[in-house]
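Ligand-bound model needed. arginine.
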Amino acid sequence: MDYKLEIAKLISIDDVSLEEILAMVTPAKDTTVADWAFPCFKFAKALRKAPVVIANDIVSAIVKPDFIASIESVNGYVNFKLSKLNYVKGVMDTALLAKAGYGDSTVGEGKTVCIDYSSINIAKPFHMGHLSATVIGASLYRIYKKLGYNVVGINHLGDWGTQFGKLIVAFKMWGDKEDVNARGINSLLEIYVKFHKVAEEKPELNDEARAWFKKIEDGNEEAMALFLWFKEVTLKDVAKIYDRLHVTFDSYNGESFYNDKMQPVLDELEQKGLTKISEGATIVEFPNEEMTPCLVKRADGATLYATRDMAAAFYRKNTYDFYKCLYVVAYQQNLHFKQLFKVIDMMGHEWSKDMVHVPFGMVSIEGGKLSSRGGNVVFVEDVLDNAKARALEIINEKNAELDNKENVAEMIGTGAVVFGVLTGNRIKDISFSYDRVLNFDGETGPYVQYTYARCNSLIEKIATNSSEMDYSTLEKPEAYELIKLIDRYPDVLVDASIKYEPSMVTRHLLAIAGQFNKFYIEQNISNSPDGEKNARLAVVNIVRDIIGGGMSLLGIECPVKM
Ligand code: ARG
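Prediction:
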């Protein structure tokens, strides 16, 4: 039931539309006094009446319906208190009927959202920045799907640039095919790092690298074969990480895909008089110098990251006719996306307003060893492995008898990392600590997973002999607060989609888990009369489904037992 709307319909003021009234109905600040309030101050002038009088008039004109417990005029507000029982019934019936589909929506019907996320670089480490890009993007993907949107997940691979020429030179000098096949990215990375060291002494290697990249561009057979193989090796390697994170993509069209799709964009820019030649390079300047010019072609004719992103934007618009195109990329690239969107706007394409940069902050790791592989890059695989190992230690301390320990440790460890990345507002930098994300009593993944397991064990253990249902027991504060959180869940999903903020879901799950644990302590479920027991068990079922479903939106699995 849409209480806000139903309440708005009860209120009538001369010459004021339902829409206007609806916009003024607000959740009450002090929920002990009222659930909804309607302030009358705005109408005083037009009606030439004091707000208190307007509120009195409104109250006396309303015939109180069943869903409302009381209506009062207080200091220029009309306060509405809902009938608790009616409200509880409404929320419970809706959630019980929907089961796992609770929160599903049709708001997205007929609209396509493209999400560019993860977008890793070939033959480079999958580092913590890519972890955020991956898990934020993948949760948005699932949230939009749940809301009925058609979603296209795109891994815009960084698979173009002179580094591939360097890699070929390095591979030809020191590479070992067997080793690359066996150790994947690590092996490629080693020779790549070595290339840079050696090239300091022998700069001519850089010329060789450029020549090899040129061969890739020209489609030379040997160069292409190596390039494609590097890509294959990388993708095979990262597939393991994507599996652990439960992440998939609909397209892996990366930078190289746009190699032959840039010329039309460059032509259009030139036709529209937007380009300028500066020291041999082609640039686009912005009105009033609001930003540094965007370089689209270097003096040597080479195109750039930005040029390929322009081609990609047109490709996506033409192929998917997107309603929105999101780019989940670190805030370091703010300028790049501002330039990209502005250039397309200057070309006169109104859909440039539908492209959104969804930036996020940096993740650093507190204390603890970072990487066994040296360097100061933190590899996601190492982080997941470490978290899993610690989760296993904790299981061995707390519940050594548990079945399937390895599996559960993976769910808890990886889940804790993902949940940690998705807890705060995405734009905030995160300083990550294993102890914090794995604290079973903190605002963590394991805490929510534990609540899920507790729901399962209650459902398994407690039986009743009748189908009697006494919802009035859920009017007690600890249950009633939980009912309100359950009621809000579908709205939270919509809010998260509007703000591109999966953390709204994460935090709502924390609130539900926290309130559930109060409810569980206060209401002795096993020792209550059947009617109450059934009502409470129904709450347990709903909470379990919301937590299970909500965590899977975040890409986190919940063990049945832990
Ligand atoms: N590969 C880039 C990086 O790792 C991110 C690409 C983001 N997507 C895009 N369309 N520019 O920094």
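The pocket of arginine is lined by residues 116, 119, 121, 156, 158, 309, 312, 327, 329 (CB under 6 Å).
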